[in-house]
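ENCODED BACKBONE
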Amino acid sequence: MLLSTLTAVLLSATVTNTEMVHDLATYNGHVVACTEGGLELFTHAGRAVRTLTVDDGLPSHFCRALEVAGDQLFAATDEGVVAVDKRWRVQPVVGAKWHALPAEGGMNAELYRAALGWLAERLPAGPTYTAFTEGYLGTADGRVMAPGSGRMWTVPGPVRMLEEMDGALRVGTTEGTFTLGAEGLVSLPVPTGPLAYAKDAKGGTRVLGAEGEARRWGERSGEARALPPGTTSTVELNGAAWAGTRGQGVFRRQGTEWKRVTPTGQLCGNHITALTRHQGLRVVGTFDKGVCWEQPDGKWRTFRAPHLPSNHVLGLASDGRNLYVATMYGLGLYDGKTWTPMAYGGRNPVALGKLSVLAAVADTEDGVALVDGRGTSFVKRASQPLELAKRLPLPEGWSTHVSGAHGAGRYLWVASEDRGLLRWDGMQWTRYHDGKHLTDNWVTALSADEEGRAVVGTCQDGFSYFDGEHWTRVRDAEGLPSRYVVSAALVPGGALLGTLLGAAHYDALSGTVRPLPKLADPRVYALWVEEGTVLFGTEGGLSQLDWSAPAAVTRR
């Protein structure tokens, strides 16, 4: 039986971080922030009122640009361009994955929509377009293209601005500003980057430096600290100045001071790599923004380096008393009061064998397993200070490219990028490899339980399911969104799979795979299964799916 086929609607519990702002626009009496967590709406007084997400119809939380045409707001996202009306309803326009939108040029919404469709049909496929003028195109890989003549110029950094002025072309990138004219490409002085661009009240172009400096185009100096550091965009509404920033959200100027209006206590980052629960709280690990947990008031508490050895989190585990954070540069241990970083070559009371701790597994018979590229350190549960129980080396010559681990009870499974899997059963190692057991030896996802079951995802060849006695290999299936499986979780009677194109449920009894509803982002890197809910950690935030297993379900 399927787990109610997992077709229950998504809860309105999509959680994102809106601190990375790419653009701002004034629309419908609000300031709209184009962020990597959706479209965040602010009143003219600076109060955050709502964030539009995929639950509202956005194809992606990664918004890149905004443009108001007539009575509608157009937004370019990583999965297509949409239009938003004054009731905040979202409608798809074109599937083009642009990082900019052409100027509306006085067109109403209907004409602008038609112009976007015409442009999408005629632009060459391949480049990511980041700037438009009537005669030129800019791209994310630093090219300026003139489709009419077929000419092309290369500039350093992604193109962020193109402006045709008096027979010349102004080119602004993240790394510099240039004039393209009769003398060729001429470099101009700039503030400290990365750079962004905005219009002043008189329509002039301002170059925005990373440290808050704003200067007129081509000038050698400007106004220092005129804007919040990392400003990417500016607008005015009812005489008040607003600024969107790179990593700190939206600011509104009150008098001579800038005040942040983006809510604090947000999810630490949208690219989620690990999930767990610790003392009843949801815990999230991210690709480059550290770790955070949700507090009872709904706000998130974030910890980054130097509390952690690295902000790149590879795994999480809790034994009820201690929280273990496996990172690229070692282990972060939280004992309820303080953080203690531990790493190979530094403070290392638990005999870690390599710098990266690839996984932390809380539920083995030998203790909490801390897995690195040379073996596993089993530490005593809830020990304070942390106490090593034993060190278990990997078999000699097995693999130098360990990719992760999971397990429970007497079983610990260790995965690699080239030699498949190992399983420790408390007495000996057993090897599993492609051909006989797995679809491929490059393992990118793993989940195992104390009954001996396991589900193993691979880089390009689907997944394999082990019921404790027999392997079933699924390279492809109608309901599998992608053969690139990056996360997995066992559930009664089967497994959940996270891929780069969405998530799916595998029913071991029938052998069928069915896709799950749309999530915060199709790239699903972490799964956490609880009674009644499944949490999905994606590259675009956190989603929660409500489900319940039927009364009778096949365990194997």
Summary: The two ends are 11 Å apart (CA to CA). The helical segments are 109-122.
